[in-house]
Design a protein that fits this description.
alpha+beta; four-stranded antiparallel sheet; three-stranded antiparallel sheet; 2 helices; 18% helix; elongated
């Protein structure tokens, strides 16, 4: 018996994204621009073979013709990215990070566009993490040992949070015992829902 080497392809896979009122979405040459009350975001999807069409002012359709299983998985990814862009220009994203330490207090200062971390595990070295464009950082007034990262682009906000967390990785010690670091404690939006 001869084994089939060709992959099973689906003729048409499609998914759509709902566009809320007050938000405009433009899709041209697989470049999506989303504009809303908080600003505008642009993202390129040129590396994916998907067909993007704006059916109406309230719906964006993403099609993939003759796609394999892994190619079809990209449709939902694209739709999720567009939905995150819509959330960003309407509500914005807010990541809260807490400082955890057993003995040496972590000292964090926000200087210009940098987050400076001092006294981590008692080290003299100053760790500096640059804030990405469109991301703002503030120390929380009413909560001790917390900073808040906010912005419209979820990629920039989450990447900044990841860089801050990775700057305080414990090296050459037992990480089960040395739990010091700056960790994401809450992910939410700047504009909270009414419920």
């Amino acid at each position: 018996e001869r084994l089939l080497t060709s992959k099973m392809r689906q003729i048409l896979a499609t998914r759509s994204v709902a566009i809320p009122e007050g938000v405009t979405v433009e899709a041209k040459c697989r470049t999506v621009t989303v504009t809303g009350p908080r600003g505008s975001l642009t993202r390129k999807f040129g590396h994916l073979n998907v067909d993007m069409q704006k059916i109406s002012d309230s719906e964006l359709k993403v099609d993939l013709w003759f796609g394999t299983l892994k190619q079809r998985a990209c449709i939902r990814t694209v739709c999720s990215h567009v939905e995150n862009m819509i959330t960003g220009v309407t509500k914005g994203f807010l990541y809260k990070m807490r400082f955890c330490y057993a003995h040496f207090p972590i000292i964090v200062a926000i200087e210009q566009r940098n987050v400076e971390i001092r006294n981590f595990l008692g080290e003299k070295r100053v760790r500096r993490v640059a804030l990405l464009d469109g991301v703002d950082a503030v120390r929380t007034d009413n909560v001790k040992d917390q900073i808040e990262l906010s912005g419209n682009d979820i990629v920039a906000v989450s990447l900044t949070a990841a860089r801050i967390q990775q700057a305080t990785r414990v090296r050459n010690k037992d990480i089960r015992k040395f739990l010091d670091g700056i960790y994401v404690s809450e992910k939410t939006t700047i504009v909270l829902d009414e419920d």
